[in-house]
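Input (structure):
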């Protein structure tokens, strides 16, 4: 099992910090260190509810929070969900592991995008399964290659993972692409796991299509949480919503409930943030429209990184990252993890390497654009200076 984006590179960064160096960290989608704070109304609700949060909750989570999540999916067109179809968790990460633990026998296969958020691949491996990576085509704006997905399905394939908007590429999938993926799941009897944590972080009029709403006839597990849109990464407050036909999934759903019971319950204080966050009074659009902070930082990071000789980048339509490509004819990189370690040591700048996202090539980097424009200008200047002379 591997989780390279928090492996040797991060350990080296900690060593440098221990030696007294200041490291500019643009490797994690963590809003708080960059001054992107949670809405006051959400924090106030948690503070006022702290007295009621001292004991265990229902293993699935408190009812008002599960109801708020169910209602938010009903508004997106997922009509058959209620609070009993919702499991709350200590972030989406815990729920991903639970969903796969309940599903997989040793050797079972799960279709995972490449590049992916690597927790998916690591969790499949940890649960005894095999992550089979389907190609997302950079030349098509990082959309999944449906023919490649279809070619990978075998008798051991159990599930299809969709990450939309995608981390690390920022791709937002079209309705046509999603319908194609869902049709493959339908034809082969696959469980659909859809990671939609960035569903409201969209630019330039991009539209997020909810996979569960497009496929009411399929068993779909939709995952989301408060970490990104609501800037509450430290609260570890996520949810899993079960939709579609459940009649033949009774054993699986019993397994999910068993795993929920075994952890006793999710973090209770953080659950109280969910009803207020999803109740309609919190809006992130002001950050995403022209003149909004995230929109301006996205535009600046994309323009500046693309201006470096030998570097090109698909413009992200969602999420919080740029995922530039280093032209192999200009930058002959054989070990991209070593590249980011060398960048870290020479420029004291921490990024993530593309192969850490289960990309089969060594020619990409991921940069988080949560920092202010001035900080991004400094960081991308360091990258340009480094690449101008770097050789492997």
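Output (sequence):
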């Amino acid at each position: 099992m591997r989780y390279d984006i928090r492996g040797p590179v991060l350990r080296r960064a900690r060593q440098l910090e221990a030696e007294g160096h200041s490291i500019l960290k643009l490797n994690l989608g963590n809003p708080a260190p960059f001054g992107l704070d949670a809405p006051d109304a959400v924090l106030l609700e948690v503070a006022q509810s702290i007295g009621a949060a001292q004991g265990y909750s229902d293993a699935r989570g408190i009812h008002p929070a599960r109801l708020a999540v169910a209602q938010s999916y009903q508004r997106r067109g997922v009509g058959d969900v209620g609070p009993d179809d919702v499991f709350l968790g200590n972030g989406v990460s815990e729920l991903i592991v639970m969903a796969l633990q309940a599903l997989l026998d040793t050797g079972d296969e799960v279709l995972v995008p490449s590049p992916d958020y690597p927790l998916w691949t690591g969790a499949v491996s940890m649960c005894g399964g095999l992550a089979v990576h389907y190609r997302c085509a950079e030349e098509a704006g990082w959309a999944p290659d449906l023919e490649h997905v279809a070619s990978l399905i075998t008798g051991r394939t159990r599930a299809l993972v969709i990450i939309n908007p995608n981390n690390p590429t920022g791709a937002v999938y079209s309705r046509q692409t999603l319908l194609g993926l869902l049709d493959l799941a339908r034809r082969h009897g696959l469980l659909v796991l859809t990671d939609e944590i960035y569903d409201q972080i969209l630019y330039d009029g991009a539209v997020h299509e909810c996979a569960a709403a497009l496929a009411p006839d399929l068993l779909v597990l939709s995952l989301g949480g408060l970490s990104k849109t609501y800037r509450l990464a430290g609260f570890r407050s996520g949810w899993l919503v079960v939709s579609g036909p459940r009649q033949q999934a009774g054993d699986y759903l019993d397994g999910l409930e068993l795993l929920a019971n075994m952890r006793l319950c999710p973090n209770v204080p953080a659950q109280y943030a969910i009803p207020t966050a999803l109740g309609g009074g919190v809006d992130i659009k002001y950050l995403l429209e022209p003149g909004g902070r995230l929109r301006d930082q996205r535009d600046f990071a994309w323009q500046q990184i693309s201006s470096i000789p030998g570097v090109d980048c698909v413009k992200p339509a969602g999420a919080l990252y740029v995922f530039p490509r280093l032209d192999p004819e200009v930058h002959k990189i054989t070990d991209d993890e070593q590249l980011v370690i060398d960048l870290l040591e020479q420029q004291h700048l921490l990024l993530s390497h593309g192969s850490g996202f289960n990309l089969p090539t060594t020619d990409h980097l991921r940069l988080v654009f949560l920092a202010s424009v001035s900080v991004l200008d400094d960081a991308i200047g360091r990258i340009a200076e480094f690449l101008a002379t770097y050789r492997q």
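Notes: The longest strand covers residues 130-137. The chain has 15 helices and 15 strands.
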